[in-house]
Design a protein that fits this description.
The complex is a heterodimer. By secondary structure, chain A is mainly alpha-helical. Chain A contains 21 helices and 2 strands. Chain B contains 21 helices and 3 strands. Classes of the chains: A mainly alpha, B mainly alpha.
């Protein structure tokens, strides 16, 4: 039998090496880090972070050259199942940059904690590789592989402080629920494949454009529920706060930004290419999830006293805002909705990472995660205080800071759709914006208006890597808020669908 | 609003608006301990900004005040069809200039009246950022740009109240913030609805004013409702006013002055510039509601004043009443009424700003604003007492001072509302509003009588009897009672002069505004079938 298989003429697919260069750089980098770690002296482990950072930046280079040189030539490879277009490139750039900032944030935490640095960076790189692949995946198989590739290292990273029971709990919870979600997702995908006979999303899209069978409806529900876990949408969000609080803070930053964004990217791709015909099933689901996610996330966040936990719930609630435009993705507002989600993911990454960077810098000296430990920050660390103000005000959606334009886009998509349900969702979101402002302002109130809790006003001196991370994130938050045109053009619908001939 | 635009000197507005940021940048690199330097930079920056404002006044073509001048229209967020469109006409010119002058005078006042919390560096940076937002709101000719500037003022004001305010500052600042945020969230939804209902072509005011009139009446009413909430919170109108007394009372003097003089006007300006011309039928449907709420505000504010025991809180409630007159003028949709409203906005800014300055200085000297503990100011500090009397007279609408020309024509305009609005209703409103002026006279004279007349309270008299040197300590309980200082004179004189000049010769401002207002009313009329 093997002989007969071998006898068949097999032609290797033509591979555009330039197009997959970012992934290749990462693969080479992962092996490099793994090998260097083996030979490197324990005292020189600090070099691991530098090498990892260089690998991530190195992977950005082909992304940039592809963006500059790329045309329609190298749009689709592997029969349109793996696509390099502007949409994919901007998201790849995002994931690589987020990875870089997380490396900057992890450096000191790992060195001081005496944790396994080499292994950590390998896992981080693998996870980023999964995300980079996710941006290009246009096939159920590659999406699932990418999703597992990015999730499995993250389960371990969440439990990285292995002597801390909370960290263990974080990892275990994340792992169990994550695997459960994968199973649900895979189950739904198997139904999709079973009823349409293909795993290629564009073909599924064609097959689902008519009347849906009961199996197909079930498939859509399962797929959506599976992704809902990944993006911690209510009611599938319960793992997020515990995991976020227990995991090391840089990992929390990574999970709440990159991992969540990757989930959204997968959801976007699947919805826009495969499930757009099934809007009767998913539109009400997404509508309800978005409304619930932003409301529940907000209301619970109001009651938190631990800042990481508060940001965890805030990130749940922000997820609701990101999800919101997708409720109208099957209407004429499809393009606005896509742009809204992509822009939101990009800018949210900057602001949220920045907020975590400040928390890392401050808690290094206060040794506390309570919101009250930020009391009087302006009086002894005005730089960090102002930066935190910028990040939280951006998260609250106050112009001209980053997220306002993303929120505006999300509202715009809903109102573009113009249906009554869309307007109702917009009003719910508007009210939620105010609730969210309530808890962001509470932190700012501590920073600006409260006295220093323990009277310790020694200036905070964050390590230079954290300053660099703060500079990148603050720069992104402010510049993108004032000149959003810089990134807005990357999220055009034709880029995602046009190249595939939908 | 004439579509023709005059495009000379179009750099002027951009420079005038963003110049304060140069000061901010400079101050960021100077350590906070150099307090004098920061105050100097603050004064110089706002003085240069005001000089650009004077240049704007000089270059403004008063023969064409109905059309946009210094017009700029360049690409900004092209994907959502929002442009950096700015311009100035007769409606916005007085407010634009007022914002610059008020900021400068407040900066000067800050020289030796820094609020207790200290840290002039942050305080002055916030004031400069605030100035950018205020000036920007008045020049923006694009809804999204307007929204951005409108929101820029939010955080600086929040921190000004919350950090440098009185005892209840945290509560007051959060209330201010959440109210405004709620209003602007709904306002944004309304803006977007307007954009899509007009064919999603452009956010520019000129385009929306043209296309907005063609929207169905029912839709206009809904969109107007959203904008109404946003602007009414800012004004603030009757049911949305509860943040104002708290914010005003708790804010530091500088914050109160800026809040009263400029920030409240963003709301009324929004009505005149955006809501009414873009949604004429919605405006007509809502006008009676606005009128009724405005009059409720007048009476409610006045009664609220009579019940206050705190001088600053009383002035804050009087703001609610005065903004009621402004809104009444707007709600008639007449040229006469809107002119009066615009005049009233500037006059209220000058007069109430002045009153808050006086209140701040009284607090600085007596460390209390309890009306019952204050008395005999005319004996202890005759000049300050006279200034208080002057501002109170202006505030109650004494003819010959600026306040009169805001209130009286606004009441009069309700006699004959435009576009077939219910005349009977408006005449009732007119009568009630006129009663409101009587109440205004009552509470202001009562305030003046209790604080300025009579013998000084022995509690403070005793302190004043101490040798001068003993009073210099910054102890909260030791009163240091002295008359108006030179810095205060510098900061206040322009206000006092302007109140008299505009009172004696109101044509000065009416002439600038009227062509723009008449074009606006004409346009609204064209949109109402």
């Amino acid at each position: 039998m093997i002989a007969s298989l071998l006898a068949q003429a097999w032609t290797a697919p033509t591979i555009d090496w330039h197009a997959i260069a970012p992934e290749l750089v990462l693969v080479v980098g992962i092996n490099l880090v793994l090998l260097v770690d083996l030979w490197l002296d324990e005292a020189k482990k600090w070099a691991m972070a530098t090498i990892t950072g260089l690998v991530l930046l190195g992977a950005v280079v082909p992304v940039v050259t592809l963006a500059v040189l790329g045309g329609d030539v190298r749009d689709a490879i592997f029969d349109g199942r793996y696509v390099i277009d502007e949409y994919a490139l901007i998201l790849k750039a995002l994931f690589l940059l987020v990875g870089y900032v997380v490396v900057l944030l992890s450096q000191n935490e790992l060195e001081e904690g005496g944790y396994y640095q080499g292994e950590f960076y390998v896992l981080l790189l693998v996870s980023v590789l999964g995300m980079v692949m996710m941006s290009s995946s246009r096939d159920l198989m590659s999406i699932f592989v990418a999703l597992e590739l990015l999730s499995i290292p993250a389960y371990m990273m969440a439990a990285w402080r292995k002597r801390d029971p909370r960290s263990n709990e974080a990892g275990a919870k994340y792992y169990l629920l994550g695997v459960f979600a994968s199973a649900v997702l895979l189950y739904g995908m198997s139904f999709l494949y079973g009823t349409t006979g293909t795993t290629k999303l564009t073909d599924i899209g064609v097959a689902l454009s008519g009347e849906l069978s009961a199996m197909q409806i079930l498939a859509v529900v399962f797929v959506l529920a599976g992704f809902a876990f990944k993006i911690s949408a209510v009611p599938f969000h319960t793992w997020a706060p515990d995991t976020y609080e227990g995991a090391p803070t840089p990992v929390t930053a990574f999970l709440s930004v990159a991992s969540k964004a990757a989930g959204f990217v997968a959801l976007l791709t699947v919805l826009y290419l495969g499930l757009y015909g099934a809007d009767e099933v998913h539109s009400p689901m997404i509508w309800a999830m978005a409304a619930l996610t932003m409301t529940v996330g907000n209301v619970v966040a109001l009651r938190q006293t631990n800042i990481v936990r508060m940001l965890a719930y805030s990130s749940v609630s922000q997820g609701g805002f990101i999800l919101m435009p997708l409720a109208v993705m099957s209407t004429t507002a499809a393009e606005s909705a896509l742009r809204a989600v992509v822009i939101y993911l990009l800018i949210y990454a900057f602001s949220n990472l920045g907020a975590f960077a400040v928390i890392i810098a401050v808690s290094r000296s206060t040794r506390s995660g309570e919101i009250s430990s930020f009391g009087g920050l302006m009086s002894y660390a005005p730089g960090l205080g102002v930066l935190m103000t910028i990040f939280l005000a951006s998260l609250a959606g106050i112009p001209p800071l980053g997220i306002w334009i993303a929120k505006l886009q999300a509202f715009r998509a809903l109102i573009d759709a113009g249906s009554t349900s869309a307007y109702v969702l917009a009003i719910i979101a508007a009210v939620n914006t105010v609730i969210a402002a309530g808890y962001y302002m509470r932190v700012l109130r501590q920073i600006w208006m409260s006295p220093v809790p323990d009277g310790d006003t020694t200036p905070i001196r964050p390590p230079s890597s954290v300053w660099l991370a703060l500079g990148i994130t603050a720069g992104g938050t402010v510049v993108l808020g004032i000149l959003p045109s810089l990134v807005l053009r990357f999220a055009d619908l034709p880029d995602l669908t046009g190249a595939l001939g939908r | 609003m004439n579509m023709a635009t005059i495009t000379n000197d179009n750099w002027l507005l951009t420079v005038g608006t963003f110049l304060p940021l140069v000061g901010v940048l400079l101050m960021m690199f100077i350590p906070a301990s150099e307090e004098r330097t920061h105050k100097q930079i603050g004064i110089v920056t706002s003085a240069v900004t005001a000089a650009v404002g004077v240049l704007t006044l000089l270059r403004f073509d008063y023969g064409h005040s109905e059309s946009l001048q210094f017009f700029v229209d360049s690409e900004w967020i092209s994907v959502i069809r929002s442009n950096y469109t700015i311009g100035l006409d007769g409606i916005s010119l007085p407010l634009y200039f007022l914002s610059m002058v008020v900021t400068l005078l407040v900066m000067i006042y800050t020289w030796d009246n820094m609020p207790d919390a200290g840290n002039p560096k942050s305080f002055i940076i916030l004031m400069l950022v605030l100035q950018v937002g205020m000036a920007g709101s008045f020049i923006a000719q694009d809804l999204i740009l307007f929204f951005v500037f409108f929101e820029v003022v939010l955080l600086p004001m929040y921190f000004m109240i919350g950090v440098w305010g009185g005892e209840q500052r945290q509560y007051a600042s959060l209330k201010f913030f959440l109210y405004t945020m709620f209003g602007s969230a709904l306002m944004l939804v309304a803006f977007l609805a307007l954009f899509f209902q007009t064919g999603a072509e452009s956010f520019s005011f000129a385009h929306l004013a043209e296309a907005g009139a063609l929207i169905d009446r029912d839709v206009q009413i809904w969109i107007f409702a959203g904008m109404f909430v946003g602007f009414a919170v800012k004004v603030p109108m009757f049911p949305f006013h509860t943040w104002l007394p708290d914010a005003h009372t708790q804010a530091p003097t500088q914050g109160s002055v800026i809040l009263a003089a400029i920030l409240l006007k963003l709301g009324t300006y929004g009505f005149v510039r955006i809501a009414i011309p873009m949604l004429p039928q919605g405006a007509k449907a809502w006008a009676p509601v606005i009128g009724i709420l405005a009059v409720i505000g007048i009476i409610y504010g006045a009664l609220g004043c009579l019940a206050q025991t705190d001088m600053k809180r009383l002035i804050a409630f009087s703001s609610v009443a005065h903004m009621g007159f402004v809104m009444l003028g707007i709600s008639t949709l007449t040229e006469f009424g809107i002119n009066a409203a615009l005049f009233g906005m500037v006059a209220h800014g000058l007069i109430t700003g002045m009153l808050f300055f006086v209140a701040g200085s009284v607090k600085h000297r007596y460390h209390t604003l309890e009306i019952s503990r204050l008395s005999g100011m005319l004996i202890q500090m005759p000049r300050l007492g006279w200034i208080l009397g002057f501002a109170a007279m202006a505030s109650l609408g004494l003819p010959g001072l600026a306040g009169f020309w805001g209130e009286f024509p606004a009441i009069l305009s309700a006699y004959n509302p435009n576009f077939g609005l219910n005349v009977g209703l408006y005449r009732v409103l007119m009568v009630i509003a006129a009663l409101g002026t009587v109440l205004a006279a009552a509470y202001l004279l009562w305030l003046y009588q209790r604080t300025a007349f009579g013998r000084p309270n022995p509690e403070f008299d005793a302190h004043a009897a101490h040798p001068v040197g003993a009073g210099v300590n910054d102890d909260h309980h030791g009163a240091d009672i002295h008359d108006v200082t030179p810095i205060e004179w510098i900061a206040w004189t322009p206000f006092l002069i302007a109140i008299v000049v505009f009172g004696v010769y109101p044509q000065l401002m009416f002439d600038v505004m009227d062509p723009a207002v008449s074009a606006l009313v004409e346009r609204v009329g064209a949109g109402i079938p």
